[in-house]
What does this fold into?
Amino acid sequence: METFEGLVFEGFKESDVGILTPIMKRAFDQDMYIHTGEPAGGPPGYDNGSLLRKWYLEKEGKAAYKVSIDGKPVGGVSIYADNVDTNVLSNIFIDPDCQEKGAGLSIWKFLEAKHPAQIWQTSTPAFSRRNHSFYVNKCGFAIVKITNPKSDFAVYELEKHTKGAF
It folds into this structure.
């Protein structure tokens, strides 16, 4: 367990799946509603725990955390890290009640400090304008590619080059 800027980070465990799945569902559903008007939606398994098991428990080279504030779980984050060249932020979510209050940026700062790399990569749906703003304006990522740009499933690929990357 580690504390950073008022957040508590604990290594993700199987027992966290049941705790964090409803939070993940609320976070993805809210994002979908804000940007598309649809009442629910997210990647396969976001609403039944299988996404958490796949991205948080089953991959080698990953680091995954349950994030809490004042003893209450509020989200999670998972990365694929080699801690040398390139790390990939695979998933981050925060309870809608805790969004827009700096928790996301604190999570990002924790990851950069705990898992340094020359290049960070992530991706996000093209429709999710809040995510674009967060990654580009707050975390320092740049959009480097748009996958499937003419489809409803367009994805922004983002990268951040840290000091010493060049």
Summary: The first helix runs from residue 16 to 36. The chain has a mean pLDDT of 94. Helices lie at 16-36, 50-57, 103-114, 129-138.
